[in-house]
Design brief:
Layout lengths: L6 E4 L2 E8 L6 E4 L4 E5 L4 H19 L7 H17 L1 H4 L7
Parallel strand pairs: 2-4
Antiparallel strand pairs: 1-2, 3-4
Helix pairs in contact: 1-2
Length: 98
């Protein structure tokens, strides 16, 4: 059984990831509370995709990229998710000292 991610560090801030049943969307980011909420009723693959999407939403907010529309956030997430999913071995040690 796959383990759900419970925390992610974004630009030095630790965001808790909560899996909830009471949201209509796949997910939502709350920058004020440093929480990402993910719909617990979607598949593991959809959850991972949603977390990546919400991370990009947080980056947009934290970096002041207000001109980055939701359409482009969705496109970036789709592309990154595909690259990360299809090249897991490439990113297994990403950012680690060897």
């Amino acid at each position: 059984m796959a383990v759900d991610i419970t925390k992610v560090k974004i630009l030095g801030y630790i965001y808790e990831i909560h899996y909830v049943d009471n949201i209509a969307d796949c997910g939502q980011a709350d920058c004020a509370q440093q929480v990402i909420r993910v719909n617990n009723k979607i598949t593991k693959q959809q959850k991972d995709s949603t977390i990546l999407h919400e991370i990009i939403e947080v980056l947009r907010y934290q970096l002041g990229l207000d001109e980055l529309s939701h359409k482009y956030i969705m496109a970036i997430e789709t592309g990154l998710f595909a690259v990360l999913s299809e090249n897991k071995e490439m990113f297994a040690n990403f950012g680690k000292e060897i």
